Amino acid sequence: MQSTDPIDRFVEQMGLITQSDGGPRIAGRIFGLLLAEGRPFALNEMAERLKISKASASTNARLLLSAGMVQLVARPGDRQDYYEMGADPYGRMVDTISARMRRSAKQVLEAEALIPDSQGDAKRRVRELAIFYDRSADFFSTWAAHLDQSAADTDFGQQTETVPSHDR
């Protein structure tokens, strides 16, 4: 049975979004929980809230930590690990997309190099794809820099922007 609590629904949606992007669903749920709640969580509290094992919470929290999406925090007198949102999770997302596009461009160029010149049309189309990936990586790098500048210029916690709908 699906929860009617809007925060729980958001947490589950983040899990599905992360899964559709090729990441672990539990990592997305952890990210959603930390984002929505806006406070640090100990692993056991996180596991209980998400109804997952502590080992799974630990594995996925460490994955998010290594990606810079979350950070470890300590509480005086408490030996537990606590996780909270990282300093720039959105910029890290964009950096990840840019790096993925850059890797794709490189792989496509390597494939293009193997296509003989006698298959010029195929070679050209494959090169166009590599250029698309490379330009997309440049775009996302520029966007990440824009996000960094926006973070420096504004307080994201107080910023309210309307998110445009792109439904067609």
TrEMBL record:
Pfam families: MarR_2. It comes from the Bacteria. Signal peptide: none annotated. GO terms for molecular function: DNA binding. Keywords: DNA-binding, Transcription, Transcription regulation. Gene3D superfamilies: Winged helix-like DNA-binding domain superfamily/Winged helix DNA-binding domain. Residues 27-79 form the HTH marR-type domain. InterPro entries: HTH-GbsR_regulator, HTH_MarR-typ, WH-like_DNA-bd_sf, WH_DNA-bd_sf. The keyword Transcription regulation applies. The keyword Transcription applies. PANTHER family: HTH-TYPE TRANSCRIPTIONAL REGULATOR MJ1563-RELATED. This is MarR family protein. It comes from Devosia limi DSM 17137. The lineage of its organism: Bacteria, Pseudomonadati, Pseudomonadota, Alphaproteobacteria, Hyphomicrobiales.
